[in-house]
Amino acid sequence: MVENCLFCKIINGDIPSKKAYEDDKILAFYDIAPQAPVHILVIPKTHISCADEINSSNSSIVAYIFEKIPFIAKEAGIENGYRIISNCGPDACQSVHHIHFHILGGAQLSEKMA
Ligand code: AMP
């Protein structure tokens, strides 16, 4: 738990969220400002700021998130594919500095990613 981290507060229950999936290691919840019909954020319960901070000691949680994403997407009703995005740093417009993986789906998405 990192003080003043929005997503740590969501994990802690201090800020409410609409949960899509939770276990002892990760939380998935619906984005408050969806950019697709289904827009879910998947986060590790341990604080990692962004992809820059992934290393051999903590990378297993990223693998775990990717193992769970197909289940989370399917449970959310995504049937025909989805996009996974993780913004890291100012040029990527990262606004919450707790690593998160956007799952976007539920419709045909743009061919362009940026
Ligand atoms: P990023 O810009 O990649 O850092 O993504 C942060 C995401 O968090 C944005 O898509 C926001 O809409 C989303 N967000 C911010 N606050 C909340 C919240 N309280 N509950 C759910 N999603 C949030």
Describe the structure in your own words:
The chain has 114 residues and is of the alpha+beta class. Helices cover 21% and strands 22% of the residues. It has 2 helices and 5 strands. It has helices spanning 6-12, 59-75; strands spanning 19-22, 26-30, 38-44, 82-85, 101-105. The chain has a 5-stranded antiparallel sheet with strand order 1-2-3-5-4, with helices on one face. Strand 2 and strand 3 (38-44) form a beta hairpin. It is globular and about 35 Å long. The protein starts with 5 loop residues before the first helix and ends in a 9-residue tail after the last strand. 20% of the residues are buried. The mean pLDDT is 97. Adenosine monophosphate is lined by residues 6, 15, 17, 29, 31-33, 41, 87, 93-96.
Counting helices, strands and paired strands, the structural category is alpha+beta
Distance between the termini: 32 Å
Which small-molecule species are bound to the chains here?
A: adenosine monophosphate
Percentage of residues in helical conformation: 10-25%
Number of helices: 2
Radius of gyration: 14 Å
For the largest sheet, list the strands in their spatial order. Answer: 1-2-3-5-4
Shape: globular
Kindly state the number of beta strands: 5
The H-and-E topology, N to C, reads as HEEEHEE
Low-confidence stretches: none
Average pLDDT across residues? 97
Beta percentage is: 15-25%
Major sheet size, sense and barrel closure:
5 strands, antiparallel
